[in-house]
C-alpha cells in the first residue's frame, strides 16, 4: 500500500508554549502509525527544532516546514533555505499552498524551483493544488488542477516524481467548514492519478501519495480517507486540537 499520511498544518498559529503543549498532547496518546502510516507536523520555522527533537524519537512521526526559499543560499533577506531545513532534520516541506500562491504571489516557476531544491536535499515536498469556487462552479476543476500539475511537476523524471506527495486542497473547502464530499474528493484524486499515469505510467501513479485538504475533521476523516485514491489528509484548523488530530491519525487506512 502507498504511504498514508496524516499531516497537520499549523499555519501561522500558536506561541511557543502553546505549540509545545499541543505537540505534547498529540504525542501523549501512543499511536504508532502502521508500517504505511506517517504523521507529519508542519509548523512555523521557529518551532521546527523543538518539534523535531520530540518527534524524531517516535517511529512514524516527522516534522515539516510550511514553506522554503526558492534560491539555494545567499542575499535573500528573510528567506529560509531548503539546505537549512535539511541541516536541522526537517523531512517534509509544504510547497505551493494556496495561501502562499494567493497572498505571497508564488507563481508556478517559483514552486518548481522549490520542488527542485527539496528533492536535491532529500526533503519530501508536499505539493498543493486545488481550484477556487468559481472554477468548480464552471465545472473546470479538472482542467485547472491538471494545468497546475503540468506547470510545476511535468519536468520531473518518474523517479523524482515518486518522491513528491501531492495534496489536493480545493480552496473553497479551506477553513470554511465546507468539506468536499468523499465522492468529490475521490473523483479529483482519481483524476490526479490518471494525469500522473498519463505522464509517467500507471506504476508510478499508483505509488504517489495524494492527500486531501480542506476542513478535514475527526468527524469526516474516516469517510474521506476510506476512498481508494485518498491517502490521508493535510489538516489545518482541526490539527490545532490534539484530541481532534489524534482521531484523524486513527482514521488513516491500515
Ligand atoms: O489549508 C489547509 C491545510 O493545509 C486546510 O485547512 P483547514 O483544515 O483549516 O480547512
TrEMBL record:
<dbReference type="GO" id="GO:0006096">
    <property type="term" value="P:glycolytic process"/>
</dbReference>
<dbReference type="InterPro" id="IPR000652">
    <property type="entry name" value="Triosephosphate_isomerase"/>
</dbReference>
<feature type="binding site">
    <location>
        <begin position="9"/>
        <end position="11"/>
    </location>
    <ligand>
        <name>substrate</name>
    </ligand>
</feature>
<dbReference type="GO" id="GO:0005829">
    <property type="term" value="C:cytosol"/>
</dbReference>
<keyword id="KW-0312">Gluconeogenesis</keyword>
<dbReference type="GO" id="GO:0019563">
    <property type="term" value="P:glycerol catabolic process"/>
</dbReference>
<comment type="pathway">
    <text>Carbohydrate degradation; glycolysis; D-glyceraldehyde 3-phosphate from glycerone phosphate: step 1/1.</text>
</comment>
<dbReference type="InterPro" id="IPR013785">
    <property type="entry name" value="Aldolase_TIM"/>
</dbReference>
<keyword id="KW-0963">Cytoplasm</keyword>
<comment type="subunit">
    <text>Homodimer.</text>
</comment>
<feature type="binding site">
    <location>
        <begin position="236"/>
        <end position="237"/>
    </location>
    <ligand>
        <name>substrate</name>
    </ligand>
</feature>
<keyword id="KW-0413">Isomerase</keyword>
<dbReference type="InterPro" id="IPR035990">
    <property type="entry name" value="TIM_sf"/>
</dbReference>
<dbReference type="GO" id="GO:0004807">
    <property type="term" value="F:triose-phosphate isomerase activity"/>
</dbReference>
<dbReference type="Pfam" id="PF00121">
    <property type="entry name" value="TIM"/>
</dbReference>
<comment type="pathway">
    <text>Carbohydrate biosynthesis; gluconeogenesis.</text>
</comment>
<dbReference type="InterPro" id="IPR020861">
    <property type="entry name" value="Triosephosphate_isomerase_AS"/>
</dbReference>
<comment type="similarity">
    <text>Belongs to the triosephosphate isomerase family.</text>
</comment>
<protein>
    <recommendedName>
        <fullName>Triosephosphate isomerase</fullName>
        <ecNumber>5.3.1.1</ecNumber>
    </recommendedName>
</protein>
<feature type="active site" description="Proton acceptor">
    <location>
        <position position="169"/>
    </location>
</feature>
<dbReference type="GO" id="GO:0006094">
    <property type="term" value="P:gluconeogenesis"/>
</dbReference>
<feature type="binding site">
    <location>
        <position position="175"/>
    </location>
    <ligand>
        <name>substrate</name>
    </ligand>
</feature>
<keyword id="KW-0324">Glycolysis</keyword>
<dbReference type="InterPro" id="IPR022896">
    <property type="entry name" value="TrioseP_Isoase_bac/euk"/>
</dbReference>
<comment type="function">
    <text>Involved in the gluconeogenesis. Catalyzes stereospecifically the conversion of dihydroxyacetone phosphate (DHAP) to D-glyceraldehyde-3-phosphate (G3P).</text>
</comment>
<feature type="binding site">
    <location>
        <position position="215"/>
    </location>
    <ligand>
        <name>substrate</name>
    </ligand>
</feature>
<feature type="active site" description="Electrophile">
    <location>
        <position position="97"/>
    </location>
</feature>
<dbReference type="GO" id="GO:0046166">
    <property type="term" value="P:glyceraldehyde-3-phosphate biosynthetic process"/>
</dbReference>
Amino acid at each position: 500500500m502507498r504511504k498514508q499520511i496524516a499531516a497537520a498544518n499549523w499555519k501561522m498559529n500558536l506561541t511557543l508554549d502553546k505549540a509545545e503543549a499541543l505537540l505534547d498532547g498529540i504525542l501523549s496518546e501512543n499511536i504508532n502509525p502502521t508500517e504505511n502510516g506517517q504523521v507529519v507536523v508542519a509548523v512555523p520555522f521557529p518551532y521546527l527544532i523543538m518539534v523535531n527533537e520530540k518527534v524524531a524519537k517516535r517511529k512514524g512521526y516527522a516534522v515539516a516546514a510550511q514553506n522554503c526559499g526558492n534560491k539555494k543560499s545567499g542575499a535573500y533577506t528573510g528567506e529560509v533555505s531548503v539546505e537549512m531545513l535539511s541541516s536541522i532534520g526537517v523531512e517534509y516541506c509544504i510547497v505551493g499552498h494556496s495561501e502562499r500562491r494567493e497572498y505571497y504571489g508564488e507563481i508556478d516557476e517559483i514552486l518548481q524551483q522549490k520542488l527542485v531544491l527539496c528533492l536535491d536535499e532529500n526533503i519530501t515536498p508536499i505539493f498543493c493544488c486545488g481550484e477556487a469556487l468559481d472554477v468548480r462552479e464552471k465545472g473546470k476543476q479538472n482542467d485547472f488542477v491538471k494545468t497546475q500539475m503540468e506547470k510545476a511537476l511535468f519536468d520531473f523524471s518518474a523517479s523524482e516524481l515518486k518522491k513528491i506527495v501531492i495534496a489536493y486542497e480545493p480552496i473553497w473547502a479551506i477553513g470554511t467548514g465546507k468539506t468536499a464530499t468523499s465522492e468529490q474528493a475521490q473523483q479529483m484524486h482519481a483524476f490526479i492519478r490518471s494525469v500522473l499515469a498519463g505522464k509517467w505510467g500507471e506504476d508510478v501513479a499508483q505509488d504517489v501519495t495524494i492527500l486531501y485538504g480542506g476542513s478535514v475533521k475527526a468527524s469526516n476523516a474516516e469517510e474521506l480517507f476510506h476512498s481508494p485514491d485518498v491517502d490521508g489528509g493535510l489538516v489545518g484548523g482541526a490539527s490545532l486540537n490534539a484530541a481532534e488530530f489524534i482521531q484523524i491519525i486513527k482514521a488513516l487506512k491500515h
